[in-house]
Amino acid sequence: SLPDLENAGDGDDEIEDGSTDDDDDDDEDKDTPPADPTVAIVEAMTQKEEGNAAFKEGDFTAAVRSYRKGTTLLKPFNKNNTGDEQVKSLLLTLQTNLSMVCFKQDKHKMSRDVASKALEIDPINVKALYRRAVAYRKLGDAESARSDLREALKHEPNNKAVREELMSIKKDVEASRAKEKERLQKAFGANKGGSSFLYNDKEEEERRKAEEKKKQEEAEAEALKKRKIEWEDECVRRMSHNEEAISFEDWEKERKKKEEEEDQARKKAKKEEEERRKAERQAAKAAAKKNDVVVDDDDELTDKELAMMRGYKKTKDGRTTSYFTREVSEEEKALLQQTAGPKLIGSATSSAATTPTASSAPTPIPANNAQESSATGTAAASAWNQAGTWEEKDTSAWCTSCLKKHLTAAAVPGTYSAKVKEVKDCSGDASVVLTRGKKRYVFDYHLTLKFDVVHISEAGVNADEIDENEADEVTAAAPTETVVATGTLKLPDISSTV
């Protein structure tokens, strides 16, 4: 079982200094330890008793000081863990007690480090393993905590505190994984309502429509209430003039008929006004044309002007493009064709481009130049590139293959791992360009990735498998993978210029 100090008291006071157990707090710690090991052991025992008393009284600062003094007295007699058993045992007790006091004061890192030093003396000490495990847990390192607790169970299988801590850590880990899985399922998968947090806002849209419908119904009910008030006033007016009252349905028909007539009259008047203004503009244009006067008609825009305002236009081949896109004229195309050089050196396209034509291509390099190039081991330049200032080679096939290979092998490791399932719609080109002695790699691709989010269940100790009468560690189960979500990622611009 664990030593008595485990439950000796509770306290939340902070240790006043930030030193480790190798540091001293006052001048007494700096005194030279006694040369006689017997005297050192007696003094260390005294410091241990004083530390225990201070701990029970809740004076954690005094307890830390006493435990440190005791370890300082004994360390010279256990260099490289070569001291006798009495020195090791007392030093181990002082350090495990100091680790517990640091833990009580929320100095979890210090508690872990002191427990680790105790384990350097005795690697299988259950108390030191337990102290370091609870410190690891507070520091967020659940795996290291479980490892220490499993090691402690090997040596004390019936230790209740160790078993309870191990089960508590297992529950925390399972709860954390369940919460993370639920969050991922909510983000990527469909819930009971058939909606997805990231990709489908159907529930939100339905809620918005329901609210709009409710507001519309309330507005219609309010309008109906006002119309009934008007109908009642009309009935009163009729009866005051000895006229027969009218039903609400007939009054509604008359009201709608009257509103339709007024609406038609407004439309007719608007149309007549537009026709009058149009006639006036046409007359003004005709008069201006007759007198050679330019009229700035601000009231009417042509179809071309309207298209310009929208920012789009139609090209000669029927394509819709930005208004600022400039079309190349036939004359400019011919000029560009005359000045264009071959693309690839030593390729079919290069040979074709260097073939003389009546319109553009120059004569090829003479044969003697080609022979000289072969003799020197260099590639023959084209007639357009005799100075060797520009060379280009198409590497699209190789680059596409490598890109697909590396993307398919891409994955994000972890408990929840993202893996690329398929590379779709991969298109683009790549080339190697040598200009003025400098090599450049030019590429431009766009593609779509399909990926899976996989949950990898790790091996661990199951609470149901821990037997109160068995010390053997439960055999770890092999990790399993479960697909919890799938998705698609579009990469529209994989370019050397980005």
Number of strand elements:
7
Indicate the multimeric state: single chain
- Helix/strand-derived class? alpha+beta
Any idea what the shape is? flat
Measured distance between first and last alpha carbons = 64 Å
Tell me what the structure shows:
Strands 3, 4, 5, 6 and 7 form a five-stranded antiparallel β-sheet that branches. The chain has a two-stranded antiparallel sheet with strand order 1-2. It is an alpha+beta fold and 498 residues long. Residues 1-29, 342-379, 460-466 and 468-476 have low confidence and may be disordered. The protein is flat, with a radius of gyration of 44 Å. The chain is built from 14 helices and seven strands. Helix 2 packs antiparallel against helix 3 and helix 5 packs antiparallel against helix 6. Strand 4 and strand 5 (416-435) form a beta hairpin.
Secondary-structure blueprint:
Elements: H1 37-56, H2 60-74, H3 85-104, H4 108-121, H5 126-138, H6 142-155, H7 160-188, H8 202-240, H9 248-290, H10 303-310, E1 312-314, E2 320-322, H11 330-339, H12 348-354, H13 367-376, E3 390-394, H14 396-408, E4 411-412, E5 416-435, E6 438-457, E7 480-495
Antiparallel strand pairs: 1-2, 3-5, 4-5, 5-6, 6-7
Helix pairs in contact: 1-2, 1-3, 2-3, 3-4, 3-5, 4-5, 5-6, 6-7
Key phrases:
498 residues; two-stranded antiparallel sheet; 5-stranded antiparallel beta sheet; alpha+beta
Give a short summary of the structure.
The chain is an alpha+beta fold.
